[in-house]
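Technical note accompanying the year-one report. For the benefit of new consortium partners, we illustrate the data format agreed upon in the data management plan: each record pairs a sequence with a structure-token string. No post-processing was applied to the example shown here.
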Amino acid sequence: RQLGFIVPLFALVSRLPQGVMQTCAPKKFHNLLAFHKYIVSQAAEVVASHGTSYNPQLQPGLFHSIVLSSLPPGEKTTKRLIDEALSIVGPGIEGPTMTCIVAIFNLTRHPACMWKLKAELAAVPISDTDALLHYEHLQSLPYLSAFIFEALRLGKESGRLARVSATTATTFGKYAFPPGTVFSVTLKDLNLSPAVYEEPESFNPERWLNDAATAGLSKGGKKSVEEGKNGGGGKEHNLKRRLMPFSRGARVCLGRHLAEVEICIAVANLVRKYDLAVFETEEQVVGGCHDFFAPAGSTDSDGLRVWL
């Protein structure tokens, strides 16, 4: 809203030839450009074939579902397919990645947390100890759930999410706001509020350890981590009510359940199989240096690097 020129500028840049973008873009963006090229080629192929190569048993996918749907032809263009793919894949990469970085970085800095988590994961009853742990093995583990809560609190979006009721007035308590009023909240400020969290800057999974902490991960994904019911009604209950890693309301993140499952599986299997130690990684890598809606570390950093 404040930087309205960004969207048209991005649209202009996206029309540049791939070779030009590859030459001008920093090296760190080359993989992203290659992925974009792959999406473009796949979308063009599906549109050109009108979905005729689709086999529901072998090749289910977003592109074919759109092309073979009852949408009008104007909604089945290559550009539409590309936009849909990028809008789904992009948030599905950025958010879970930063949360996993925060989780692993803080785990290596708090050995007591690491050994508690390792002990809980080692106790999971599984016949093949070399096999990957699946979500059904993990969803009811209390310390893993608390650990993910804390990583979500410290690793999610730093930008402001604006909400506008364009045509109707809004009433909140004794206050009335006219149509068009912009409401927004900075999630980072909320997640680091000293009025809500004791020592908010510290990584402390134990703050979540009560019956409510496992509610989100014990329902097979039907409840998100932030929405689990609390059985205690104490301070932890208030923490859960105030945790908003995926926003709230009608515009809540559609992929929040998938993100929670991804983070849970990734962190649990990595911690279970390996002993982790940070290698030449500064705290700036876990965010706080830049606000690209999602928090980002220093652009001079090589990212999170660990010994396995």
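Partners are asked to follow this layout when depositing records. Strands lie at 160-164, 170-172, 175-177, 182-186, 277-278, 290-292, 294-296, 306-307.
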